[in-house]
């Protein structure tokens, strides 16, 4: 057959199946081209080199095989197949693996698995393989409500009040309040007496496995008087460097599978590689960007005054530019005055200055005005119950919007323009042929000397000289 499966094997050097694959490939027992790798770093270097692969077979006992490695394999369109000796203790399918093979598999079983989950490399057109290897999740996810605001606006206080009122419902829902800020303060506000476990531990647990709801709840602190569970945030700035994008997204999904509502207090840091030219900055802002792209509602908190309104309008525009529908944004003016004229003027300014031609199809929700609460510092110091007037309006509006709009649907990945020479070009020969044809036509129209018909005799070269 002209097309063969290009298989990368990643295992210990003395694994029996690791050696069998080389023999099957060299003796044409199976239609595969086999590549050996002994460490995940070596495999990542080969994947990054642009080599086209159909599948990666990995040893289940090999360290370093986590969610990020499997996502890297999926990014080039290859399938990850795990080879295990017996019943594996890890949920490989939830990590994104396509199939699991017993270590004593036969050539027929290998070919059947590759035919079902992988795509052979087309040698005639040199197209890159593409297969759907993303994990499927049938468990319904709970609503995710993000809360963000500029420094000093009281966004964390609004997040606490919102989680408290959502948890006070008569149906007794289970609510999780997660501290996703780069500098976590929720442990101080709640006086939990400890700083771990928290978000770093939850993300690390999802790097190599998918936790059950009961295991996730053990990482949170129950706040009995406020009727929610608290997930502490980062303790040091360097914690963000150890949390990888796919593991962060899996941790958020784990929270949504384990609770009825998830309130995520996060920073409004949305800059990515497209805005800054740095992939490191985009990875540092993964939590905020994931919240913006997946949250059912986003509560944006501001303060009265020219500076507060300016910051709130900027947040509305930034979240809208990232793809958040404007009807899912809830602007909140914290510590607002009781003057009806001032509130009406603020609402009008927000509606006028935050509008753009691209947002005519969607309407921004009317802002909520929360009054100033006296002795708020004492309430935080004693971790007491917050007044209903602070969180009840936000909770009622959130419930109403969730009923009207429903949960937010996952958006399809936007197409990315590829440069010449990059892995993943489809129909490259046709494009090159079309491009060369256009160049030939352009030379004829402009009369390029190489394409002009020759009308002179043998002395034409001397005449030109």
UniProtKB/TrEMBL annotation:
Residues 419-465 are annotated as: Disordered. Residues 447-459 have a biased composition (Polar residues). SUPFAM superfamilies: P-loop containing nucleoside triphosphate hydrolases. Gene3D superfamilies: P-loop containing nucleotide triphosphate hydrolases. This is Unannotated protein. It comes from freshwater metagenome.
């Amino acid at each position: 057959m002209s097309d063969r499966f290009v298989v990368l094997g990643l295992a210990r050097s003395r694994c029996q199946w690791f050696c069998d694959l080389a023999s099957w490939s060299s003796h044409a027992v199976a239609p595969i081209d086999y590549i050996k790798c002994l460490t995940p770093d070596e495999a990542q270097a080969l994947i990054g080199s642009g080599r086209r692969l159909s599948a990666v077979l990995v040893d289940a006992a090999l360290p370093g095989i986590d969610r990020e490695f499997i996502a890297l394999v999926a990014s080039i369109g290859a399938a990850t197949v795990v080879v295990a000796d017996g019943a594996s203790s890890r949920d490989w399918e939830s990590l994104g693996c396509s199939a699991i093979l017993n270590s004593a598999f036969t050539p027929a079983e290998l070919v059947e698995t590759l035919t079902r989950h992988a795509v052979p490399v087309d040698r005639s057109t040199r197209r890159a393989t593409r297969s759907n290897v993303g994990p499927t999740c049938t468990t319904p996810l709970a609503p995710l409500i993000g809360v963000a605001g500029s420094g000093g606006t009281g966004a964390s206080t609004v997040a606490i009040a919102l989680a408290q009122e959502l948890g006070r419902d008569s149906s007794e829902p289970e609510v999780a309040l997660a501290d996703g800020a780069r500098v976590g303060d929720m442990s101080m506000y709640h006086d939990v007496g400890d700083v771990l476990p928290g978000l770093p531990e939850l993300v690390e647990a999802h790097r190599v496995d998918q936790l059950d709801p009961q295991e996730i709840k053990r990482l949170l602190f129950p706040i009995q008087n406020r009727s929610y569970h608290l997930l502490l945030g980062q303790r040091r700035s360097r914690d963000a460097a150890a949390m990888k994008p796919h593991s962060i997204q899996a941790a958020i999904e784990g929270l949504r599978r384990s609770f009825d509502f998830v309130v995520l207090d996060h920073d409004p840091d949305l800059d990515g590689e497209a805005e800054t030219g740095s992939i490191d900055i985009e990875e540092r802002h993964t939590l905020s960007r994931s919240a913006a792209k997946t949250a059912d509602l986003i509560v944006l908190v501001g303060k009265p005054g020219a500076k507060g309104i300016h910051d709130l309008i900027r947040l509305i525009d930034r979240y809208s530019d990232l793809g958040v529908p404007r009807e899912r944004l809830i602007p909140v003016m914290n510590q607002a005055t009781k003057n009806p004229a001032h509130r009406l003027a603020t609402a009008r300014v927000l509606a006028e200055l935050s509008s753009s031609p691209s947002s005519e199809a969607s309407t921004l929700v009317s802002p909520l005005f929360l009054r100033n609460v006296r002795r708020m510092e004492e309430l935080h110091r004693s971790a007491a119950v917050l007044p209903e007037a602070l969180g009840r309006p936000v909770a009622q509006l959130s419930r109403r919007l969730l009923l009207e709009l429903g949960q937010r649907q996952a958006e399809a990945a936007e197409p990315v323009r590829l440069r010449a020479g990059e892995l993943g070009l489809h129909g490259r020969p046709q494009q090159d042929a079309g491009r060369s044809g256009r160049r030939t036509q352009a030379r004829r129209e402009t009369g390029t000397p190489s394409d002009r018909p020759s009308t002179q005799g043998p002395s034409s070269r001397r005449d030109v000289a």
